[in-house]
Design brief:
The protein has 285 residues and is of the alpha/beta class. 40% of the residues lie in helices and 20% in strands. Helix 10 (233-240) links the parallel strand 11 (221-224) and strand 12. Helix 1 crosses helix 11 and helix 11 (249-264) runs antiparallel to helix 12. The structure holds 2'-monophosphoadenosine-5'-diphosphate.
Length: 285
């Protein structure tokens, strides 16, 4: 009889981490692809990120996903960074290789893939509005540019932070031939956008970011990076104005799929896992 194949070890680290869906998602990916992967969860003590990761590496760990509040620690810990992780200023995927610790950020690609592959909305030539200018917003700008939208407007409650992002990404926008602008809520043009992404932390406390009603309409995809058993206030607002609304569950699955691809060189089918996850989430509602 053959001995069971040893499994390569991965984990998600966060605080809190008990509700993370990543172990479940990666277990589905491993089943689907036949990759010999074991994926756990690690509660990182605040201030103890480096110690936990070093111990995981020493015990044979191959890679980690990193979630709140450690994405900046992971950025600092990595020996080298992918361009998208460097631009995001945050790391959600660590790979432990012979050349050291490699940091990547798959959140933006996860968003873009969910919009295009799962929701069937092309970003090419689209007018895109990004609400928010924190870490979540910064991480998606380059992956959005990669899909060649016509324009991207970044709007934030604190206008200066949006303007700072516009400055940071001005050259990349020029290279990608994307019209980039932004600032406070007055920067929103009073015409319908094709895609509006809510990257503010507003949905956490049921707050609606300021956004002109004229931005939403039939043909708009209003995407909230948050998710839950019920539509967020942003999604409800967008639907009342005739838009199609989506939550961030697909982004969660697709960022995981990209991490799995980085580690294993095999691309799992995110759409199938998303459908299964959606069923378990709505069954709880
Ligand atoms: P993250 O890393 O999740 O993006 P962050 O860096 O704290 O978190 O950024 C939170 C974002 O949500 C910011 O754009 C913040 O706006 P400010 O820069 O003006 O603080 C935005 N945000 C949080 N609560 C909000 C609310 N109630 N209405 C509008 N924007 C909100």
């Amino acid at each position: 009889m053959n001995a069971p194949q040893p499994r390569d070890r991965y984990a998600v680290i966060g605080n809190p981490v008990e509700h993370s869906k990543s172990p479940w998602i990666h277990a589905r990916f491993a089943e689907q692809t036949g990759e010999a992967v074991e994926y756990g969860r690690i509660l990182g003590p605040l201030g103890g990120f480096e110690r936990e990761v070093t111990a995981f590496i020493a015990s044979g760990g191959r890679g980690m996903n990193v979630t709140v509040p450690f994405k900046l620690d992971a950025h600092a810990f990595a020996d080298s960074l992918s361009p998208r992780a460097a631009a995001a200023g945050a790391v959600n995927t660590l790979s432990f290789t012979e050349d050291g610790v490699r940091g990547d950020n798959t959140d933006g690609v996860g968003l873009v893939r969910d919009i295009e592959a799962n929701l069937g909305v092309s970003l090419q030539g689209a007018r895109v509005l990004l609400l928010g200018a924190g870490g979540a917003a910064r991480g998606v700008v380059l992956p959005i540019f990669d899909r060649r939208p016509a324009s991207l407007v970044i709007v934030n409650r604190t206008a200066a932070k949006a303007q700072q992002l516009v400055g940071q990404f001005a050259q990349a926008a020029q290279e990608a031939n994307v019209r980039l602008s932004g600032g406070g809520a007055h920067s929103i043009e009073k015409t319908r956008y094709d895609v509006i992404v809510n990257a503010t932390a507003g949905s956490l406390d049921a707050a609606l970011p300021e956004c002109d009603d004229a931005a939403f309409g039939v043909g708009t995809l209003a995407y909230d990076m948050m998710y839950g058993p019920k539509p967020t206030v942003f999604m409800q607002h967008a639907e009342r104005l005739g838009a199609r609304a989506a939550d961030g569950l697909g982004m969660l699955v697709e960022q995981a799929a990209e991490s799995f691809f980085i580690w294993r060189g095999v691309r799992p089918d995110g759409g199938a896992v998303l459908r299964e996850l959606r069923q378990t989430l709505t069954a709880k509602a």
